[in-house]
Design brief:
Elements lengths: L2 H46 L6 H7 L4 H4 L6 H21 L5 H11 L2 H5 L6 H9 L4 H22 L8 H20 L3 H23 L2
Helix pairs in contact: 1-2, 1-4, 4-8, 5-10, 8-9, 9-10
């Protein structure tokens, strides 16, 4: 290879590296922007409701332009579906990352039925914050949520019965139902003491479900 060919080859290699770096930067930036929109939308949805949260407000919170929204989502319905999938995945992974068994479930219950979770819906479970609105969403969004709930049921069942999760499916559904309904009711009442009592009652009720699962 002569000097001219060597120089040309070096320039081509350098250009390819620059192109790869730019492409990676663009991809990373797009992923980060999408993450910001999802996290911002999740907080606003859970705080103000799906119907009460417009795209303009969400993008303003994320410090992004409205035009950036459509580079990531086809519509608000598409955003809602992705937010629910992302949020439910986080709660599933939170429990799924713990050692399988009753201790992990009990810790999860204490966190879920805590005053902190009740008082901060914007950082909490989407089911407790948005269930009534999810029921009114389009079928595509509800299918996404249904899949996420089914996966969460499987995780809970695996903790209740590590050797045979399918045998604990009914108990897992009951446990999740008690958790979500308890937080919703505790948030709805204006009497603080009554709200605290509802959370405590929920903890006792879930303990009963766990005991029944142990003696199944």
């Amino acid at each position: 290879m002569n000097v001219r060919q060597s120089t040309t080859a070096c320039k081509a290699t350098a250009a390819a590296r620059r192109g790869h770096t730019v492409a990676r930067y663009t991809s990373d930036r797009k992923s980060e922007t999408r993450r910001r929109i999802l996290e911002t939308a999740a907080r606003r949805f859970k705080q103000d409701g799906i119907d009460g949260s417009g795209i303009a407000a969400i993008m303003s919170d994320a410090q992004l332009t409205n035009g950036a929204f459509y580079a990531h989502f086809a519509s608000k319905d598409d955003l809602v579906a992705n937010v629910l999938a992302n949020q439910m995945r986080g709660w599933q992974e939170n429990l799924g990352s713990s050692p399988v068994g009753r201790a992990a479930i009990e810790e999860f219950i204490r966190g879920y039925l805590s005053p902190r979770h009740r008082d901060h819906p914007e950082t909490g479970c989407p089911s407790a914050a948005l269930l009534d609105e999810i029921a009114r969403c389009d079928k595509a969004t509800r299918r996404v949520y249904t899949k996420a709930i089914e996966e969460f049921i499987d995780v809970v069942a695996a903790h209740l019965s590590p050797d045979d999760p399918s045998a604990a499916r009914t108990q897992a559904i009951g446990l999740i139902t008690v958790l979500v309904a308890t937080v919703q009711l505790a948030r709805a009442v204006t009497d603080r003491q009554l709200s605290d009592d509802i959370l405590e009652s929920g903890i006792r009720n879930t303990q009963t479900l766990l005991d029944n699962a142990d003696h199944r």
